[in-house]
Structure formats: structure tokens, C-alpha cells
Amino acid sequence: MLVSGCIARLLVVTTTLTCLTLVSAKYCTVAGPTDIVIGLGDSFSTMTHWWKTIVYSPGALRFVDSLIKQFDYSQVRVSLFAYSNSIRRISAFSTNRRYLSRTLLGRWIPQFGGLRTSAGLRVFTNYLLSKSRRGATRIIILLSNRPPDNYYWTISQAVRTRNKNIHIITVGCGNRNIRESVMITGKTNQVFGSINEHVLVSLVPGVKRRICRLTEESQPPPQIPPVVINRVDIILVADHSQSVRVIDGIRATYCVQCLEFIANFVDNIAFPRCAVGITMFADDAYVLSGISEEANSLRTTINSVDGLLIPYAGSSLESGIAIAHAQFSNSSRESSNKKVILVMCDGSGENDERVRSQSMAARADDIVTYVLTWPSPGGIAINDIQLNDIAGESSRIIKVTSLERLPEMAAPLAGKMCPSG
406: closest CA among 249, 225, 216, 264? Predict the structure, then answer.
């Protein structure tokens, strides 16, 4: 005689007097969507005599009932099947633990026949492939207390199932063969068992932890955002006026220390992440080299400055800043690149108001402005007001105590404007 729904419920309640205390229903924290098929093997070996009635194994029922109460159903769906001579679906995928529990305890009839595990695995696999959610971790839990009817067919089907990225966990009791279970799951840590069916419930925490771990392992690797390289475009606005000339007989040349500074600056730039342009100013301003990532080309251009004759010339500093600003606006380089202007001068510009307005216009277009200055007896000393007008803030004003110390400032300034990291 088969057990009715109410007798099954009564049996589960009654066994609390002789079984282990029900495991605390602490929800399993899974790493992502998880679809689980629980297959209850209801072969003849699961028959239990209770009050002159044949019922399904109370220990197995208790295990499944406890397990389905452990999940966070915002992420997990569970489906229940029975497998013996035939495969029967007890419940479709559900996120309602009360419904699953009621269905388990009262809405199915055990078959008490053979144990066609291979057929069960095939049906469970097809069900998961057709009904599971995209990206969900797919798990089959097989519960039985005896070996399958056909060992080789079962192992063959288990391999096909695992090859479809479906995990298998086995839970057994009695004469269940451990080696056979390992062959089905493919992993020893997914095999759980007990000699006595009434202590199966004690396996729930371990099974729960393994499910959570499988969901973590099944998640795709975190998407590493592409490395954003902070590219920097730098324009040196160098003083080319009368005050920076060096007289060598009848020949006027550019000051050696200024050339050394520019050459050292270029040598310490992290090309191609950063690029450098050179603008000169005297009575007017002109582009000596456009913004370039070619270090060799820049070095050649720098060396050519040494041979330039410098006539008596003024200091149109504002023109140099305006030309540099225009280069950024007209450049084909990425507009997202950080933009920097470094003004090199030993004296004041000729028109304070124009210097201020051109510097403010550059900063309004998100151009960072620096000023590097040194004392020179040949020029009119630049005052702090104009230095602040150019740089915008005192931290971007670099004062060198003598012309001889100018070259040694190149490396730290290049590193500040274009960090190697």
C-alpha cells in the first residue's frame, strides 16, 4: 500500500524524535542565478515499512525537504524529479519553497522499481538545457541508496552531461558505491553519503556549501576594464628674446642651459604616452616643432636652435601662449588628452594684461599652465603677479636661482607632467 500525502507529512514530523535536529534554514548565498534539478531515486530499496504501510525513505525525504529550505530563491530555482523504471517530474522549476515542500511530501507516488540512473540523467540534462536561464549555474543532485541498473550507460551519460557544463552531485546511503559516485560526478568533493538514511539530513550543510562554491566557480571571470592610458600633450613655450642670447664673437646663439633643459626634458618624457611640441617667442611667436611623439625628430629640432641668429628682439610672451593654445585646438590628437603648457622665460612679457588674458583663456579650455623662470641681467625681471597670471596657482610656478641650475630641473618637471606610471 502506498503512502498518502498526509501520512508522508506525519512521518517526517514523527522522525524528528529519532533523527538529528533539523539543520538551521540559513539561506545559501550563491554567486549568481542557479537552476537545480533534484532527482529522487525511488527504487524498491527505498521502501520503508511504517505502521503496516510501505512508504518512501523518510530520511531521504527529510534530507530533500531540509535542502530546499536552504536557498535564497531570489537567485535559485529548484525542480524535483523521481526516477526508477520511469522518469517523472514532480515539480517544474519553482522559486516557492513552500510549494516545493508540499509537493515533495504529498503530491507524488513512489514507483519502487529499478533504478535507471542513465535515463534519469538524460531527462534531467535535457530539461536543464531547455528550461534553465541564460548564464545560470546548472546542477543535478542525484539521491539514491543503491547502484544504478546499468553502470556503463550511467557513466557514459554522466560524462555527456558534464560536457554540457552541468554539474552533478550525488547523495547516497546504504550500499551506495563511492567509487561509482565519483565516476558519475567527476569530483570527489561532489559525492556525499551516509550509512544510515536518518542522518542524511546532516549532509545538508556540506551539500549547500558545495552548491555555493560551484556557483562561484561557474561565474565568468570579472571583466577587467581596459587600462586607460592618461595621455598628455605638452608644449614648451620658450623665451627666444634678446635676454637669452649668448654672444660668441660676432655670433649670437641661444643659451646653452636653455638648450640643455629642453633636450633633458624631452629625454625624460615617456613617449609615446606623452607628446611634446616647442614654440618660441620673441617679438612674435612661431612653432619650432608641432606636438610629436617622435623623440629623435624633437632632438634634431632642438639641435637646430643652437645655430639661429637672434637679432635684438622683444618678449611677446602672450603671443607664445596664444600660439600654443591654438595648436591644441587645431591638433589632430585626441581631444581627451591632458594638455599642458610650460612657459620658459627669464623676464617679464611686454603686455601684462594680454599675458593674463591669454593664460586665462588657455586654462578655460582645461589647459594646465606652468611657468619656469630664472634671473637674467639682460631682461626685465618678471614679477610675482605676472607669474601667478600665467600659472594660475603658486604650485605651478618654478623659480630657478641661477641659469646654471636650469638643466637639472628638466627631469623632475618632465616626471611631474608625464608620470611614467
Answer: 264
